[in-house]
Amino acid sequence: MLQVACIVDDEVSAFELAVAAEVFGADRTDRGVPRNDFRVVTPTPGPIRVEGGLGLPIMVQEGLAFADEADVVIVAPYADCCIDAACSVSIAHVLQRAVARGARVLTLCTGAFVAARAGILSDRRVATHWRHVEQLAEQFPDIVVERDALWADDGPVTSSAGTAAAIDASLHLIRELQGAQVAAIIARSMVVPPLRDGGQSQYAVGPVAEQRADTLAPLIDWVAARLDEEHTIASLARRARLSERTFARRFREELGTTPAAWLVSQRVQRAQALLEATDLGLDAVAQQAGFGTAALLRHHFTRQLGVAPSAYRRRFAVSETVDA
Fold first, then answer.
1. pTM for the full model?
2. Distance between CA 55 and CA 74 in Å, rounded?
3. Which residues, listed in sequence order, are joined to residue 125 by a DSSP beta bridge?
4. DSSP-derived 3-state class of residue 306
């Protein structure tokens, strides 16, 4: 179970607040998901205005004290008109203490501006909505703004681009803290893909694989069922009956990433599932996930998730396992 504090203030975005509540706060114990202690907090408890003049203020009863105990502190985004507003001193101190004590901080969309003003994003890679990346980079030149990322992970801070990317960043954090199976159950209940890579473009013309790429869906399904086999751009282009150049361009347009990056991501996800649910040794996991060797598995797994396969297994295995 996680303790999760979602910080809000006037003109909070209803969508991202709802995403945080749905991913971290919904009760799915009947499906084997631990119930987190999710609370919405604010500097001054009372009614909070929701963005857009909807006439739907929300009543927030908790102050910021709970955020100082939380494992995850979420910074909800605010309306565009509030981006230039000064960060509350109390919020800034909460975020600074969260980073200092090793808690995770998740900024959603323009919540990155709040965290930047709190001084916790210096020299970190950060994502925000594509409409605001230049403004973020101009106002905070010490931040490495990922201009075309769905989400970014740097140390204790995870940041998302706009709207639906909040789902991706939230599920990524769930995968890191509670495991791939928990994230998959939550994603399934929300009817969304279990993972979109942070490096996937915000400007994808078509939906990602799990949402069904228009022309490449049959190929994607075929590859996903054969991750343990060798695949190259040349072989995939032949199967799609396209030139390599056209195939690479169409893949980027429809899935928002490159074939190689997508394949590595799918294989890492497959390895996560095997490490959690089986007692296979690392060599066997590497073979079934398509990496071939345990060394290659370790390389890609650690690069994508920031943790070694063996350490991941010790944390999230659902049964006793032994690494070979």
1. 0.71
2. 24
3. 144
4. coil
The burial class, CB within 10 Å (0-12 / 13-18 / 19+), for 58 is middle
Name which of 78-87, 121-130, 214-223 the model is least confident about: 78-87
Is 30 a residue whose pLDDT tops 80? yes
Cα separation, 8 vs 10, whole angstroms: 7
Instruction: Classify burial at 173, counting beta carbons within 10 Å of its beta carbon; exposed 0-12, middle 13-18, buried 19 or more.
Output: buried
Sign of the C-alpha dihedral, residues 312, 314, 320, 323?
positive
| Other beta carbons within 10 Å of 49 | 17
Task: Tell me what pLDDT residue 148 has.
Answer: 81
What are the tokens at 110?
A: 């323009």
Q: How far apart are the first and last CA of the chain?
A: 30
Which DSSP letter does residue 36 get?
P
CA dihedral 89, 91, 93, 95 (to 10 degrees): -150
Q: How many CB atoms lie under 10 A from the CB of residue 119? A: 14
Residues 210, 183: contact at Cβ < 8 Å? no
Tokens standing for 247? Answer: 């195939």
Of the candidates 231, 264, 233, the one whose C-alpha atom is nearest the C-alpha of residue 250 is 233
Beta-strand pair 72-75/37-41: unpaired
Phi and psi at residue 153, to the nearest 5°: -125, 120
Can you list the positions of beta strands (E) in 86-243?
104-108, 125-126, 144-145, 151-154, 157-160
92-111 pLDDT, tens digit per residue, is: 999 999 999 999 999 999 99
Confidence at residue 232, expressed as pLDDT on a 0 to 100 scale: 94
CA distances from 228 to 289, 303, 308 (A): 5, 20, 20
86 Cβ contact partners less than 8 Å away, ≥ 6 residues apart: 117
Contact of 297 with 277, CB cutoff 8 Å: no
